[in-house]
Amino acid sequence: MKVYWKTQPYEGSLHHSRSGECWKLTQLGLTLKPVVRAVEYIQDQLGTELTVSGIAQAVGLSPYHFTKLFKESTGQSPHQYVVEARVRKAKELLTTGRFTISEVAHHVGFADQSHLTRHFKRVFGLPPNKLLRRLQVVV
Fold first, then answer.
1. 10, 44, 64, 120: which sits with the fewest CB atoms below 10 Å from its CB?
2. Backbone angles phi, psi at 24, to 5 degrees
């Protein structure tokens, strides 16, 4: 995964190439390496149990400083980012048509199908089964 940092005179953006997300920085001069490493770590470990302290340890910061830096850099808490990354990965897997919703839920780190469905609906505005039905109609 590649993450790009682009600077402009008074603001900047951190572009996450895998998901196409763009995060506006709230301050200039932030050390972004831990945030970039955290995003890469999260993407690589989506199917595992991810905790703030575990991610912070992986990037060499205290949980407090990691959470503060991550939120300032991305506009989301680490937990919010992890949940949304899991939902996006779930959508990607579901659209292949090779897995059930339950299989995908467990593969991306949700406790069960209902946990995935609740967050999926919040992020995309419809539950995964309706997305699958729409894809079947198109095909």
1. 10
2. -85, 135
